[in-house]
Design a protein that fits this description.
137 residues; five-stranded parallel sheet; Universal_stress_UspA; 5 strands; Rossmann-like_a/b/a_fold; Rossmann fold; alpha/beta; UspA; Universal stress protein
């Protein structure tokens, strides 16, 4: 059982309810669950074609979507950060004394075998325990 669990929440995937349920089952009484979403703003040459107002609107949409997803879970602290998904999850866990990360994973596609999925990177580099929930899709 864990005192501080971070649930990595991809707002465009439907596994958040299952990962939140898993986190609640793994949590010690009096513990804390943090729902973390990493917003990946456009980078590189794409950023040259997107203005700052559009980027800010995307971040605010992510904040709204996260609030909606956590509306039925007032006991979970929602956190929204910007960055690369795997790196931001690992860095947040390391700097906030997270005991366990719970995240969902899809069945890997061909590109995942060459590049690695977010969950695979988190498992390899996280400073704490990681529980991966494999979805059916």
């Amino acid at each position: 059982m864990y005192n501080k669990i971070m649930v990595a929440m991809a707002l465009d995937h439907g596994v958040s309810e299952q990962t939140l349920t898993i986190a609640k089952a793994l949590l010690n009484e009096g513990g804390e669950i943090v729902g973390l979403h990493v917003h990946e703003a456009p980078e590189g040459s794409v950023r040259a074609y997107v203005d700052e107002k559009t980027i800010a609107a995307g971040f605010e949409k992510a904040r709204t979507d996260m609030s909606a997803k956590l509306a039925g879970h007032p006991e979970i602290n929602g956190v929204l950060v910007e960055g690369h998904s795997a790196r931001a999850i690992i860095d947040y866990a390391a700097s906030h004394d997270v005991d366990c990360i719970v995240l969902g994973s899809h069945k890997p596609g061909l590109s995942d075998y060459f590049l690695g999925s977010t969950s695979a990177r988190v498992v390899r580099h996280a400073p704490c325990a990681v529980h991966v929930h494999r979805s059916d899709t």
